Amino acid sequence: MNMHTLHIKNMVCPRCIMAVKDLFKKLDYTLVDIKLGETIIKADQINYELIRDELKLLGFELLEDKKLQLIDKIKTLIIDYIHYSGDQIFKTNFSDYLVEKMGKDYNYLTSLFSSIENITIEKFLIKQKIEKVKELIVYDELNINEIALKLNYSSSAHLSSQFKNETGLTPSQFKKIQNKSRKSLSDL
Length: 188
Known about the structure:
By secondary structure, the chain is α+β, with helices and mostly antiparallel strands. It is built from nine helices and four strands. It folds into two domains: 2-64, 2-Layer Sandwich (Alpha-Beta Plaits); 70-187, Homeodomain-like (Arc Repressor Mutant, subunit A), CATH 1.10.10.60. It is 57% helix and 12% strand. It has a four-stranded antiparallel β-sheet, with helices on both faces. Strand 2 and strand 3 (38-43) form a beta hairpin. Helix 3 (66-84) packs across helix 4. The longest helix has 19 residues, at 66-84. The termini are far apart. The mean pLDDT is 90.
């Protein structure tokens, strides 16, 4: 049997991994490995059309274009870096982290990302950080200074300024509103 790596768009959380894992089990494929944005299966033949259709029903997309696979991998790494890595990863400069994980030149990655997404990697990273700030505000377990420290902001003033630039609200104004508008990570 051959190993096949499939790149899947919109896999942004542990629940997504579970959903895709269940899908491949239902389709009777042997799953070798699965992580955000990528699945490795063992099979002699693959019915790509069936997989594509079944993934679409779950809100995912099979990526076959190499450049789109790179873009999705960058997005997945950013989401993982901000939302699921805990405190330890912020000791690493993100561009160094991205180069290490992707094995490609940072200038190439930023140029490719900007040309396809019409947004810079840095701006996408900021949008993800602001969504994480919103989540932490909603949970109401940390104050703004603690959130700034957790997300490696130079100060709470820097966090507040970036938050206001992105949302039009200060963190304290956001905390006071009843319907806190958070976006799905795949929609950023």
